[in-house]
Amino acid sequence: xxxxxxxxxPEEARAILQNAVDARQSIGIFEITKRxxxxxxxxxxxxxxxxxxxPLIRPFRxxxxxxTYVLPIIPLVLLFDGVVSCLRTYRPGELCEIIENVxxxxxxxxxxxxxxxxxxxxxxxLIGYPQIYVSPR
Length: 137
What we know:
- The chain is an alpha+beta fold and 137 residues long.
- The chain has helices at 10-22, 37-53, 62-70, 73-88, 92-100; strands at 27-31, 107-114, 123-130.
- It starts with 9 loop residues before the first helix and ends in a 7-residue tail after the last strand.
């Protein structure tokens, strides 16, 4: 799941993870949003990009131009959604609390934040997978 886990309340998130465990399936959760002022501020230029990119969106619709430029509902909704997503994103510690309530014997969890380029653009992740047991000969 990429940039969608924050949509679930903690009990729903735990149920999703428990389902993966029960099915003995791996699961990866990745969130690019973050509950931090710097990430919330980035939502403003993200919404403003719509004013530049709207004419390039196909298929062309007059209504899209109207709701972007005349009555800017689309940019405002995008901005609102981005800010709320940032505020709802789980922090690594909160993800650890959720997996504490998942019964997962023989399951491995990795939780953290990763950034290859800068400390400001970190991806929060939770990866779970069943441990593989090799039987001795």
